[in-house]
Structures are given as structure tokens and as C-alpha cells.
Amino acid sequence: MTQTFTSTQNEIIRYVYNETSPSENRLIEEWITGDTENLDFYLDCLQLKEEMDQIVLVPKDITLERIFDYSKNYKPAY
Prior knowledge:
By secondary structure, the protein is mostly helical. Helix content is about 70%, strand content about 0%.
């Protein structure tokens, strides 16, 4: 299997999602400011995260109806 992300990129993704420690943050910030490829990757990740945060998922009406029907008829087994 071909690896598509480097460990640096994985760490940058963790940084974007605030999953890194303060000491990791300093190191990642050095990577970002010291390398244009890392900076570009970081900026792309920020943009993608922002776009993904805008996604709103809405179930179909039939799905909700089925759930409500099921819950109306549900009788727990005691």
C-alpha cells in the first residue's frame, strides 16, 4: 500500500484540529513557517476544514417518519 501522507502532514492535520500539545504546536509552527509546501498544505487543510464545517446533513422525510413510527410502536422487553 502506498503512503499518501507524510508524518509531517499528519501532524499538521492534528494541529488544525487542535489535537496537539503545546510542545508539538511549536514544532509544527516551525515546519509551517519554514517550508512553503508545509504552509500550503496547512492553508489547504484550514480551508477544507472550514468548508466541511459548513456541511449540513438533513435526513429524508421518509427516514424521519420511519423512526417516529418505530418509536411509537416500540415496547421494551422487560
